[in-house]
Amino acid sequence: MTAIASQFQYTALHKPNQLIYGQGQTAIITGWTVKANVQKHLQAQDYAVIGQLYSPTRGLSLLIRNLLFNPHVRFLVVLNATKEDKNAGACQCLLDFFRNGFVEGVSDTGRRSWVVCSSIVGYIDLEIPETILHNLRQSIEVTEARSIAEVCTVVKSFAQRGIIQPWSLPLEYPLKEVIPKILPGPRYGHRIEGKTIAETWVKIIHRIKTTGTIRPTGYDGKWQELIDLTAVVTDEPPDFFFPEPNYLPIDRSFLQEYISQILDDAPHQEGVKYTYGQRLRSHFGIDQVEQVINRLVRDIDSARAVMSLWDVRIDTNENPPCLNHIWVRVVNQELSMTATFRSNDMFSAWPANAMGLRALQAVIMDEICQRSYSKLKMGPLITISQSAHIYDDCWENADNLIKSQYTKICGARDYADPAGSFVITVQEDKILVEHMTPGSGEVVNCYSSKSATQLYRQIATDCPSLQVEHAMYLGAELQKAEIALSSQQKLTYHQDQPLKIKL
Ligand SMILES: O=c1ccn([C@H]2C[C@H](O)[C@@H](COP(=O)(O)O)O2)c(=O)[nH]1
Protein backbone atom coordinates (compact mmCIF):
# COMPACT_ATOMS: atom_id res chain seq x y z
CA MET A 1 0.00 0.00 0.00
CA THR A 2 2.86 2.36 0.88
CA ALA A 3 4.43 1.90 -2.55
CA ILE A 4 1.20 2.90 -4.32
CA ALA A 5 0.50 5.78 -1.95
CA SER A 6 3.85 7.38 -2.71
CA GLN A 7 2.72 8.25 -6.24
CA PHE A 8 1.21 11.50 -4.94
CA GLN A 9 3.28 14.63 -4.94
CA TYR A 10 2.02 17.86 -3.38
CA THR A 11 2.89 20.99 -5.38
CA ALA A 12 2.35 24.28 -3.54
CA LEU A 13 1.53 27.35 -5.63
CA HIS A 14 1.84 29.51 -2.51
CA LYS A 15 4.24 29.48 0.45
CA PRO A 16 6.16 26.46 -0.95
CA ASN A 17 9.01 26.80 1.55
CA GLN A 18 6.71 26.90 4.58
CA LEU A 19 5.31 23.41 4.07
CA ILE A 20 6.41 19.88 4.90
CA TYR A 21 5.68 17.48 2.04
CA GLY A 22 4.66 13.84 2.07
CA GLN A 23 3.17 11.45 -0.48
CA GLY A 24 -0.21 10.66 1.07
CA GLN A 25 -3.69 12.14 0.68
CA THR A 26 -4.17 13.99 3.98
CA ALA A 27 -3.36 17.65 4.47
CA ILE A 28 -2.58 18.56 8.10
CA ILE A 29 -3.13 22.11 9.25
CA THR A 30 -1.39 22.75 12.54
CA GLY A 31 -2.43 26.31 13.32
CA TRP A 32 0.00 27.69 15.90
CA THR A 33 1.46 24.31 16.86
CA VAL A 34 4.91 23.97 15.30
CA LYS A 35 4.48 21.70 12.25
CA ALA A 36 7.77 19.83 12.77
CA ASN A 37 6.41 18.53 16.07
CA VAL A 38 3.57 16.84 14.22
CA GLN A 39 5.78 15.57 11.41
CA LYS A 40 8.13 13.71 13.73
CA HIS A 41 5.32 11.36 14.81
CA LEU A 42 4.29 10.44 11.25
CA GLN A 43 5.54 8.68 8.10
CA ALA A 44 5.78 10.78 4.94
CA GLN A 45 3.51 8.36 3.02
CA ASP A 46 0.72 9.03 5.51
CA TYR A 47 0.27 12.72 4.76
CA ALA A 48 0.25 14.96 1.67
CA VAL A 49 1.41 18.14 3.35
CA ILE A 50 1.76 19.73 6.79
CA GLY A 51 1.44 23.50 7.13
CA GLN A 52 0.50 26.17 9.61
CA LEU A 53 -2.44 28.55 9.24
CA TYR A 54 -2.29 31.78 11.19
CA SER A 55 -4.71 34.21 9.61
CA PRO A 56 -8.30 33.62 8.46
CA THR A 57 -8.38 36.88 6.54
CA ARG A 58 -5.15 36.39 4.61
CA GLY A 59 -3.95 32.80 4.93
CA LEU A 60 -7.15 30.96 4.16
CA SER A 61 -7.44 31.89 0.50
CA LEU A 62 -3.87 30.76 -0.26
CA LEU A 63 -4.46 27.48 1.56
CA ILE A 64 -7.61 26.86 -0.49
CA ARG A 65 -5.75 27.71 -3.70
CA ASN A 66 -3.07 25.16 -2.80
CA LEU A 67 -5.72 22.51 -2.09
CA LEU A 68 -7.37 23.18 -5.46
CA PHE A 69 -4.05 22.63 -7.20
CA ASN A 70 -3.64 19.30 -5.37
CA PRO A 71 -6.92 17.44 -5.87
CA HIS A 72 -5.34 14.21 -4.65
CA VAL A 73 -5.81 15.61 -1.13
CA ARG A 74 -9.01 13.91 0.07
CA PHE A 75 -8.63 14.38 3.84
CA LEU A 76 -7.95 17.37 6.00
CA VAL A 77 -6.98 17.27 9.67
CA VAL A 78 -7.09 20.58 11.48
CA LEU A 79 -5.18 20.80 14.75
CA ASN A 80 -7.03 23.40 16.75
CA ALA A 81 -5.20 23.00 20.04
CA THR A 82 -3.72 26.11 21.58
CA LYS A 83 -4.82 29.37 23.16
CA GLU A 84 -3.25 31.16 20.18
CA ASP A 85 -5.44 29.14 17.80
CA LYS A 86 -8.53 30.14 19.75
CA ASN A 87 -7.43 33.77 19.69
CA ALA A 88 -6.58 33.87 15.99
CA GLY A 89 -9.61 31.82 14.94
CA ALA A 90 -7.98 30.70 11.67
CA CYS A 91 -8.46 26.96 12.26
CA GLN A 92 -12.05 27.53 13.37
CA CYS A 93 -12.72 29.53 10.22
CA LEU A 94 -11.22 26.83 7.99
CA LEU A 95 -13.41 24.21 9.66
CA ASP A 96 -16.45 26.45 9.22
CA PHE A 97 -15.69 26.84 5.51
CA PHE A 98 -16.05 23.08 5.13
CA ARG A 99 -18.96 22.72 7.58
CA ASN A 100 -21.04 25.82 6.85
CA GLY A 101 -19.89 27.14 3.48
CA PHE A 102 -19.56 30.75 2.37
CA VAL A 103 -21.48 33.67 0.88
CA GLU A 104 -20.56 36.58 -1.35
CA GLY A 105 -19.56 39.71 0.57
CA VAL A 106 -16.94 42.40 0.92
CA SER A 107 -13.52 41.96 2.53
CA ASP A 108 -11.87 44.28 5.04
CA THR A 109 -9.96 45.81 2.14
CA GLY A 110 -13.21 46.61 0.34
CA ARG A 111 -12.81 43.84 -2.25
CA ARG A 112 -15.70 41.64 -3.28
CA SER A 113 -14.87 38.25 -1.78
CA TRP A 114 -16.30 34.98 -0.58
CA VAL A 115 -16.90 35.31 3.14
CA VAL A 116 -16.88 32.13 5.25
CA CYS A 117 -20.09 31.43 7.20
CA SER A 118 -18.40 31.63 10.57
CA SER A 119 -18.24 33.75 13.70
CA ILE A 120 -14.59 34.30 12.64
CA VAL A 121 -14.11 36.62 9.70
CA GLY A 122 -12.34 34.87 6.84
CA TYR A 123 -12.13 35.52 3.10
CA ILE A 124 -11.54 33.54 -0.07
CA ASP A 125 -10.75 35.26 -3.38
CA LEU A 126 -13.76 35.79 -5.60
CA GLU A 127 -11.69 34.73 -8.63
CA ILE A 128 -12.30 31.14 -7.48
CA PRO A 129 -15.69 30.02 -8.87
CA GLU A 130 -18.44 29.17 -6.39
CA THR A 131 -19.10 25.71 -7.84
CA ILE A 132 -15.43 24.79 -7.58
CA LEU A 133 -15.37 25.76 -3.90
CA HIS A 134 -18.47 23.64 -3.28
CA ASN A 135 -16.85 20.72 -5.09
CA LEU A 136 -13.80 21.10 -2.89
CA ARG A 137 -15.94 21.15 0.25
CA GLN A 138 -17.72 17.98 -0.81
CA SER A 139 -14.59 16.17 -1.94
CA ILE A 140 -12.53 16.47 1.23
CA GLU A 141 -13.30 14.76 4.51
CA VAL A 142 -12.46 17.08 7.37
CA THR A 143 -11.62 16.28 10.99
CA GLU A 144 -10.79 18.56 13.88
CA ALA A 145 -8.12 17.39 16.33
CA ARG A 146 -7.28 18.76 19.77
CA SER A 147 -3.83 17.25 20.29
CA ILE A 148 -0.84 15.98 18.32
CA ALA A 149 -1.70 12.44 19.42
CA GLU A 150 -5.21 12.79 18.04
CA VAL A 151 -3.83 14.09 14.71
CA CYS A 152 -1.61 11.00 14.43
CA THR A 153 -4.43 8.56 15.12
CA VAL A 154 -6.73 10.20 12.56
CA VAL A 155 -4.04 10.59 9.88
CA LYS A 156 -3.01 6.94 10.22
CA SER A 157 -6.60 5.76 9.98
CA PHE A 158 -7.11 7.79 6.79
CA ALA A 159 -3.90 6.35 5.33
CA GLN A 160 -5.27 2.86 5.86
CA ARG A 161 -8.22 3.46 3.62
CA GLY A 162 -6.04 2.95 0.53
CA ILE A 163 -5.86 5.08 -2.59
CA ILE A 164 -8.76 7.36 -3.45
CA GLN A 165 -8.93 8.98 -6.88
CA PRO A 166 -8.22 12.73 -7.11
CA TRP A 167 -11.51 14.60 -7.23
CA SER A 168 -10.48 16.81 -10.17
CA LEU A 169 -7.56 17.87 -12.35
CA PRO A 170 -5.27 20.49 -10.72
CA LEU A 171 -7.03 23.87 -10.69
CA GLU A 172 -5.39 27.30 -10.71
CA TYR A 173 -6.97 30.78 -10.69
CA PRO A 174 -5.40 34.21 -11.28
CA LEU A 175 -4.10 36.11 -8.26
CA LYS A 176 -4.18 39.92 -8.06
CA GLU A 177 -0.87 41.58 -7.17
CA VAL A 178 -0.51 45.09 -5.76
CA ILE A 179 2.79 46.88 -6.41
CA PRO A 180 3.31 49.84 -4.08
CA LYS A 181 4.62 53.23 -5.09
CA ILE A 182 7.54 54.16 -2.83
CA LEU A 183 8.85 57.60 -1.91
CA PRO A 184 12.52 58.15 -1.15
CA GLY A 185 13.52 58.37 2.53
CA PRO A 186 16.28 57.53 5.01
CA ARG A 187 17.11 53.82 5.30
CA TYR A 188 18.25 53.38 8.89
CA GLY A 189 16.83 54.86 12.11
CA HIS A 190 13.33 56.36 12.22
CA ARG A 191 11.39 58.08 15.00
CA ILE A 192 7.62 58.17 15.29
CA GLU A 193 5.65 59.56 18.20
CA GLY A 194 1.98 59.48 19.11
CA LYS A 195 -0.25 59.85 22.14
CA THR A 196 -1.93 56.46 21.85
CA ILE A 197 -0.90 53.11 20.45
CA ALA A 198 -3.65 53.44 17.82
CA GLU A 199 -2.46 56.85 16.66
CA THR A 200 1.20 55.80 16.66
CA TRP A 201 0.32 52.66 14.71
CA VAL A 202 -1.30 54.60 11.88
CA LYS A 203 1.79 56.82 11.63
CA ILE A 204 4.07 53.76 11.62
CA ILE A 205 2.06 52.08 8.88
CA HIS A 206 2.14 55.27 6.82
CA ARG A 207 5.91 55.65 7.22
CA ILE A 208 6.71 52.06 6.28
CA LYS A 209 4.19 51.96 3.42
CA THR A 210 5.46 55.19 1.87
CA THR A 211 9.22 54.84 2.37
CA GLY A 212 9.95 51.21 3.30
CA THR A 213 12.09 49.07 1.03
CA ILE A 214 10.56 46.00 -0.60
CA ARG A 215 12.55 42.90 0.26
CA PRO A 216 12.03 39.12 0.31
CA THR A 217 10.75 37.94 3.71
CA GLY A 218 12.20 34.47 4.04
CA TYR A 219 8.58 33.24 4.05
CA ASP A 220 7.87 32.98 0.31
CA GLY A 221 6.74 36.53 -0.06
CA LYS A 222 7.78 40.14 0.19
CA TRP A 223 7.58 42.75 2.87
CA GLN A 224 8.13 46.47 3.00
CA GLU A 225 10.71 47.28 5.65
CA LEU A 226 12.35 50.07 7.60
CA ILE A 227 15.33 49.30 9.77
CA ASP A 228 15.45 50.50 13.39
CA LEU A 229 12.14 52.20 13.87
CA THR A 230 11.65 53.82 17.26
CA ALA A 231 8.02 54.38 18.26
CA VAL A 232 7.27 56.55 21.28
CA VAL A 233 3.78 56.26 22.76
CA THR A 234 3.32 59.03 25.31
CA ASP A 235 -0.20 58.81 26.73
CA GLU A 236 -1.84 55.43 26.31
CA PRO A 237 -4.64 55.41 28.92
CA PRO A 238 -4.66 52.68 31.63
CA ASP A 239 -7.69 50.92 30.14
CA PHE A 240 -6.29 51.21 26.58
CA PHE A 241 -7.64 53.31 23.76
CA PHE A 242 -9.65 51.48 21.12
CA PRO A 243 -10.86 53.79 18.36
CA GLU A 244 -14.53 53.91 17.38
CA PRO A 245 -15.04 52.25 14.95
CA ASN A 246 -12.10 50.04 15.83
CA TYR A 247 -9.56 50.10 13.00
CA LEU A 248 -6.94 48.16 15.00
CA PRO A 249 -6.28 44.50 14.07
CA ILE A 250 -7.22 43.45 17.64
CA ASP A 251 -10.11 43.99 20.03
CA ARG A 252 -10.49 43.98 23.81
CA SER A 253 -11.20 40.28 24.16
CA PHE A 254 -8.12 39.34 22.13
CA LEU A 255 -6.05 41.73 24.19
CA GLN A 256 -7.10 40.17 27.46
CA GLU A 257 -5.79 36.77 26.37
CA TYR A 258 -2.68 38.29 24.85
CA ILE A 259 -1.72 40.28 27.95
CA SER A 260 -1.55 37.08 29.96
CA GLN A 261 0.95 35.69 27.43
CA ILE A 262 3.26 38.59 28.34
CA LEU A 263 2.61 38.87 32.06
CA ASP A 264 2.19 35.31 33.21
CA ASP A 265 4.38 32.27 33.31
CA ALA A 266 3.18 29.28 31.29
CA PRO A 267 4.26 25.65 31.43
CA HIS A 268 6.14 24.28 28.44
CA GLN A 269 3.94 22.23 26.09
CA GLU A 270 5.13 20.07 23.21
CA GLY A 271 4.93 21.83 19.88
CA VAL A 272 3.76 25.10 21.41
CA LYS A 273 6.09 28.04 21.00
CA TYR A 274 7.49 29.86 24.03
CA THR A 275 5.46 32.77 25.36
CA TYR A 276 7.05 36.00 26.44
CA GLY A 277 5.65 35.49 29.97
CA GLN A 278 7.52 32.21 30.19
CA ARG A 279 10.77 33.76 29.01
CA LEU A 280 10.42 36.59 31.53
CA ARG A 281 9.19 34.63 34.51
CA SER A 282 10.85 31.23 34.49
CA HIS A 283 12.87 30.29 31.41
CA PHE A 284 16.22 31.36 32.85
CA GLY A 285 15.34 30.08 36.33
CA ILE A 286 14.72 33.66 37.48
CA ASP A 287 11.61 35.84 37.54
CA GLN A 288 13.04 38.81 35.66
CA VAL A 289 9.98 41.00 36.27
CA GLU A 290 10.43 40.58 40.02
CA GLN A 291 14.13 41.22 39.61
CA VAL A 292 13.53 44.54 37.83
CA ILE A 293 10.96 45.63 40.42
CA ASN A 294 13.34 44.82 43.27
CA ARG A 295 16.24 46.58 41.63
CA LEU A 296 14.26 49.80 41.16
CA VAL A 297 12.82 49.60 44.67
CA ARG A 298 16.39 49.43 45.96
CA ASP A 299 17.74 52.06 43.60
CA ILE A 300 15.19 54.14 41.72
CA ASP A 301 17.95 55.77 39.64
CA SER A 302 19.29 52.46 38.37
CA ALA A 303 19.95 52.10 34.65
CA ARG A 304 20.35 48.34 35.14
CA ALA A 305 16.67 47.36 35.14
CA VAL A 306 16.96 45.00 32.18
CA MET A 307 15.02 41.92 31.12
CA SER A 308 16.44 39.65 28.47
CA LEU A 309 14.43 37.21 26.39
CA TRP A 310 17.07 35.97 23.98
CA ASP A 311 18.63 32.70 25.03
CA VAL A 312 22.00 32.39 23.32
CA ARG A 313 22.05 28.66 24.05
CA ILE A 314 18.94 27.75 22.04
CA ASP A 315 17.78 30.68 19.96
CA THR A 316 19.45 29.48 16.80
CA ASN A 317 16.44 27.08 16.59
CA GLU A 318 13.20 27.44 14.63
CA ASN A 319 11.38 29.91 16.86
CA PRO A 320 13.58 32.54 18.42
CA PRO A 321 11.65 35.29 20.21
CA CYS A 322 11.07 38.55 18.33
CA LEU A 323 11.03 40.58 21.54
CA ASN A 324 14.54 40.43 22.91
CA HIS A 325 15.29 43.12 25.44
CA ILE A 326 13.26 45.28 27.83
CA TRP A 327 14.66 48.19 29.80
CA VAL A 328 12.83 50.11 32.50
CA ARG A 329 13.88 53.53 33.67
CA VAL A 330 12.58 56.08 36.16
CA VAL A 331 13.31 59.75 35.57
CA ASN A 332 11.46 62.68 37.16
CA GLN A 333 9.09 60.23 38.91
CA GLU A 334 8.09 58.89 35.51
CA LEU A 335 8.55 55.23 34.63
CA SER A 336 9.30 54.54 30.98
CA MET A 337 9.82 51.23 29.27
CA THR A 338 11.87 50.54 26.16
CA ALA A 339 11.44 47.24 24.34
CA THR A 340 13.60 46.02 21.48
CA PHE A 341 12.32 43.61 18.82
CA ARG A 342 14.75 42.07 16.36
CA SER A 343 11.86 41.61 13.95
CA ASN A 344 8.38 43.11 14.15
CA ASP A 345 5.31 42.63 12.00
CA MET A 346 4.08 46.20 12.32
CA PHE A 347 0.69 45.65 10.73
CA SER A 348 -0.56 42.50 12.43
CA ALA A 349 1.51 42.20 15.60
CA TRP A 350 2.72 45.60 16.80
CA PRO A 351 -0.55 46.89 18.34
CA ALA A 352 -0.88 43.75 20.48
CA ASN A 353 2.85 43.77 21.27
CA ALA A 354 2.64 47.40 22.37
CA MET A 355 -0.50 46.92 24.48
CA GLY A 356 0.98 43.83 26.14
CA LEU A 357 4.14 45.75 26.99
CA ARG A 358 2.09 48.65 28.29
CA ALA A 359 0.33 46.23 30.65
CA LEU A 360 3.72 44.97 31.84
CA GLN A 361 4.89 48.55 32.33
CA ALA A 362 1.82 49.26 34.50
CA VAL A 363 2.36 46.12 36.63
CA ILE A 364 5.99 47.06 37.24
CA MET A 365 5.08 50.65 38.12
CA ASP A 366 2.29 49.67 40.52
CA GLU A 367 4.50 47.17 42.31
CA ILE A 368 7.35 49.66 42.71
CA CYS A 369 4.92 52.27 44.08
CA GLN A 370 3.47 49.79 46.56
CA ARG A 371 6.76 48.41 47.77
CA SER A 372 8.65 51.68 48.01
CA TYR A 373 5.75 53.97 48.99
CA SER A 374 6.80 56.28 46.15
CA LYS A 375 4.47 58.00 43.74
CA LEU A 376 5.39 57.35 40.15
CA LYS A 377 3.48 58.07 37.00
CA MET A 378 3.46 56.19 33.73
CA GLY A 379 6.01 57.53 31.30
CA PRO A 380 6.14 56.65 27.62
CA LEU A 381 6.34 53.20 26.13
CA ILE A 382 9.09 53.04 23.55
CA THR A 383 9.49 50.21 21.10
CA ILE A 384 12.52 49.77 18.91
CA SER A 385 11.70 47.54 15.97
CA GLN A 386 14.87 46.56 14.16
CA SER A 387 13.22 45.03 11.13
CA ALA A 388 9.93 46.95 11.09
CA HIS A 389 7.94 45.40 8.29
CA ILE A 390 4.57 44.97 6.64
CA TYR A 391 3.98 41.68 4.78
CA ASP A 392 2.74 41.92 1.19
CA ASP A 393 -0.55 40.25 2.09
CA CYS A 394 -1.35 43.25 4.32
CA TRP A 395 -0.40 45.99 1.85
CA GLU A 396 -3.95 46.54 0.70
CA ASN A 397 -5.23 46.75 4.29
CA ALA A 398 -2.37 49.11 5.12
CA ASP A 399 -3.21 51.40 2.18
CA ASN A 400 -6.85 51.47 3.23
CA LEU A 401 -5.91 52.30 6.81
CA ILE A 402 -3.73 55.18 5.62
CA LYS A 403 -6.51 56.45 3.36
CA SER A 404 -9.15 56.37 6.08
CA GLN A 405 -7.12 57.44 9.16
CA TYR A 406 -3.79 59.09 8.44
CA THR A 407 -4.94 62.54 7.32
CA LYS A 408 -7.45 62.65 10.18
CA ILE A 409 -4.74 61.83 12.71
CA CYS A 410 -2.29 64.38 11.30
CA GLY A 411 -5.05 66.99 11.32
CA ALA A 412 -5.66 66.45 15.04
CA ARG A 413 -2.01 67.20 15.97
CA ASP A 414 -1.06 69.91 18.43
CA TYR A 415 1.67 72.36 17.59
CA ALA A 416 3.78 71.92 20.73
CA ASP A 417 7.34 71.14 19.65
CA PRO A 418 9.59 69.83 22.46
CA ALA A 419 12.42 71.67 20.68
CA GLY A 420 10.75 74.95 21.68
CA SER A 421 9.16 77.87 19.88
CA PHE A 422 10.40 80.94 18.00
CA VAL A 423 9.25 84.52 18.13
CA ILE A 424 10.00 86.49 14.99
CA THR A 425 9.96 90.29 14.77
CA VAL A 426 11.19 92.76 12.19
CA GLN A 427 13.33 95.52 13.72
CA GLU A 428 14.66 98.68 12.00
CA ASP A 429 17.15 96.91 9.77
CA LYS A 430 17.05 93.23 10.64
CA ILE A 431 14.93 90.24 11.46
CA LEU A 432 15.12 89.14 15.11
CA VAL A 433 14.37 85.57 16.17
CA GLU A 434 14.11 84.51 19.81
CA HIS A 435 14.21 80.81 20.63
CA MET A 436 12.15 79.94 23.72
CA THR A 437 11.70 76.83 25.84
CA PRO A 438 8.37 75.02 25.53
CA GLY A 439 5.89 75.83 28.27
CA SER A 440 7.76 78.31 30.44
CA GLY A 441 8.89 80.42 27.48
CA GLU A 442 12.41 81.30 28.64
CA VAL A 443 14.55 82.81 25.92
CA VAL A 444 17.45 80.44 25.29
CA ASN A 445 18.88 81.87 22.09
CA CYS A 446 18.63 84.91 19.86
CA TYR A 447 19.36 85.26 16.13
CA SER A 448 19.41 88.34 13.92
CA SER A 449 20.07 88.90 10.23
CA LYS A 450 18.67 90.59 7.15
CA SER A 451 18.49 87.26 5.36
CA ALA A 452 15.84 84.58 5.94
CA THR A 453 18.17 81.98 4.42
CA GLN A 454 20.97 82.80 6.83
CA LEU A 455 18.55 82.58 9.75
CA TYR A 456 16.98 79.28 8.83
CA ARG A 457 20.37 77.73 8.16
CA GLN A 458 21.62 78.78 11.58
CA ILE A 459 18.44 77.60 13.33
CA ALA A 460 18.50 74.27 11.46
CA THR A 461 22.13 73.73 12.46
CA ASP A 462 21.46 74.56 16.11
CA CYS A 463 18.15 72.67 16.38
CA PRO A 464 18.26 69.63 14.08
CA SER A 465 15.42 67.90 15.95
CA LEU A 466 12.80 70.54 15.08
CA GLN A 467 9.54 68.95 13.95
CA VAL A 468 9.19 68.98 10.17
CA GLU A 469 6.03 71.07 10.06
CA HIS A 470 7.47 73.53 12.57
CA ALA A 471 10.64 73.92 10.50
CA MET A 472 8.63 74.52 7.32
CA TYR A 473 6.46 77.05 9.13
CA LEU A 474 9.58 78.90 10.31
CA GLY A 475 10.94 78.99 6.74
CA ALA A 476 7.69 80.54 5.48
CA GLU A 477 7.54 83.08 8.34
CA LEU A 478 11.18 84.11 7.91
CA GLN A 479 10.67 84.64 4.19
CA LYS A 480 7.65 86.88 4.92
CA ALA A 481 9.77 88.83 7.42
CA GLU A 482 12.50 89.31 4.80
CA ILE A 483 9.99 90.56 2.25
CA ALA A 484 8.69 93.13 4.78
CA LEU A 485 12.22 94.17 5.70
CA SER A 486 13.23 94.74 2.09
CA SER A 487 10.00 96.59 1.20
CA GLN A 488 11.37 99.91 2.41
CA GLN A 489 8.68 100.23 5.07
CA LYS A 490 5.84 99.55 2.62
CA LEU A 491 4.88 96.28 4.30
CA THR A 492 4.61 95.38 7.97
CA TYR A 493 5.29 91.94 9.41
CA HIS A 494 3.46 90.31 12.33
CA GLN A 495 4.11 86.65 13.02
CA ASP A 496 1.26 84.37 11.97
CA GLN A 497 -0.52 87.14 10.07
CA PRO A 498 -0.54 88.08 6.39
CA LEU A 499 1.83 90.92 5.43
CA LYS A 500 0.08 94.28 5.68
CA ILE A 501 0.50 97.29 3.41
CA LYS A 502 1.40 100.34 5.49
CA LEU A 503 -1.08 103.15 5.02
O1 LIG B 1 5.64 39.16 19.20
C1 LIG B 1 5.87 39.00 18.00
C2 LIG B 1 6.15 37.74 17.43
C3 LIG B 1 6.39 37.66 16.08
N1 LIG B 1 6.37 38.78 15.30
C4 LIG B 1 6.62 38.68 13.84
C5 LIG B 1 7.91 39.29 13.36
C6 LIG B 1 8.17 38.48 12.10
O2 LIG B 1 7.35 38.99 11.05
C7 LIG B 1 7.68 37.10 12.46
C8 LIG B 1 8.74 36.20 13.03
O3 LIG B 1 9.60 35.78 12.05
P1 LIG B 1 11.09 35.23 12.31
O4 LIG B 1 12.01 36.41 12.27
O5 LIG B 1 11.10 34.57 13.66
O6 LIG B 1 11.31 34.28 11.17
O7 LIG B 1 6.68 37.31 13.45
C9 LIG B 1 6.10 40.02 15.85
O8 LIG B 1 6.05 41.03 15.16
N2 LIG B 1 5.86 40.09 17.19
Fraction in helix: 25-40%
Low-confidence stretches: 1-5
Radius of gyration: 29 Å
What binds here, in terms of ligands, is: 2'-deoxyuridine 5'-monophosphate
| Count of strand segments | 20
Overall pLDDT: 94
Shape, principal axes of CA atoms: globular
Question: Per DSSP, what share of the residues sits in E-state strands of 2 or more residues?
Answer: 15-25%
Number of helices: 15
**N→C terminal distance:** 103 Å
Organism: Iningainema tapete BLCC-T55
GO molecular function, one term: thymidylate synthase activity
GO biological process, one term: methylation
Keywords: Methyltransferase, Transferase
Give a description of the structure.
Strands 9, 10, 11, 12, 13, 14 and 15 form a 7-stranded mixed β-sheet that branches. A 5-stranded mixed β-sheet has the order 1-3-2-4-8, with helices on both faces. It has a 3-stranded antiparallel β-sheet with strand order 5-6-7. The chain starts with a helix and ends with a strand. It is globular and about 100 Å long. With 503 residues, it is of the alpha/beta class. The N terminus is likely disordered. Helix 9 packs parallel to helix 10 and helix 14 packs antiparallel against helix 15. The structure holds 2'-deoxyuridine 5'-monophosphate. 2'-deoxyuridine 5'-monophosphate binds next to strand 14.
